[in-house]
Amino acid sequence: MKKRIYLDHSATSWPKPPEVKKAVLKFMDKVGANPGRSGHLLSIEAARILYEAREVLATCLNMRDPLRIVFTLNATEALNLALRGLLKPGDHVITSSMEHNSVMRPLRSLVNQGIELTVVPCSPEGILDPTGLEREIRERTRMVVLNHASNVTGTLLPVQEVGSISRKHDLLFVVDAAQTAGVYPIDMERDRIDLLAFTGHKSLYGPQGTGGLVLGERVHAQGMVPLKEGGTGSRSEHEQQPEFLPDRFESGTPNGPGIAGLLAGVRFVLSHGIEQIRDQELRLTKILVEGLKAIRGVKLYGPANLRQRMATVSFNMTGISPSEGALRLEKRSGILCRPGLHCAPAAHRTIGTFPEGTIRFSLGFFNTEEEVRTALEAVEEVAASGS
User: Is residue 369 predicted with pLDDT exceeding 60?
Assistant: First the structure.
């Protein structure tokens, strides 16, 4: 059987560290109980695991109060909670043209309910000019929503600068950190982030079905509308939803095994160091980008400056559609990558690749230089074969 080379970490990281799998199995074998719903030993142990996960995430994101981390199924649910929970008819929101549909779809839906939306165009490399964004601020502007890095080109957006602009104008700043949490330094205080959505299954190395929304100190839970209401294991004598965090937004039985795995994943990240993980990924990205540049018939997208991007590289081959190119790469060399629009049509319009999209290689901590060079050889072969 042909060896597989997994280059789809922007979709989900794989394989997971061994300790993540062990933590999930241990929870199911040794704990299994519902946290906060009972007073027995196993329920208490389950609650302890959830709280420890909040603590390590708070360390990872420089968040002082772990209880302001609300667990969700993924970054998409977290973004929906932030946008639908805070925006009201008449509010004006600013976002960029490099956003994922996890931002664009709820915002477009909210436009139908009376919010106003401005999409600030980025350059063909996916770069956002913060001064251009600031010029779009109006009297009724309430929120700025920005992804930290594009899932298409890997372009890092100027979160720190936009955070300062948002704070200066007393706006809420929402950051989609699906592509950066765990592999790029995030500091809620320094970056002036009010709400941060993260997913557990990418660079935090947790299982799928984990993620969360981090609420900064300026966000008042009582002013946010929950996406769902129901049992929380707290204040059970009342038929009204609790107002305190995190219970206000965490109705229903949580994903205990998944969060146990997420706890192990975040500990793995912290033990290796976020900067060290990023340096390893950038080293491989440099080899990949330089190699693709040298292949005849390949067009690269995204910023030339590697420090301005993540380990996500989009490209196309002359005369070969992205879907056909990806299929040939898998058949010939076992390369597992993602072609198409990557759930980000606005980003592809920005870089000029709509409607067919691109082939995307996204690297992770467990990829090797040998795998990258094998992938480059495969691209060269497919590109030379033409249509």
Answer: yes
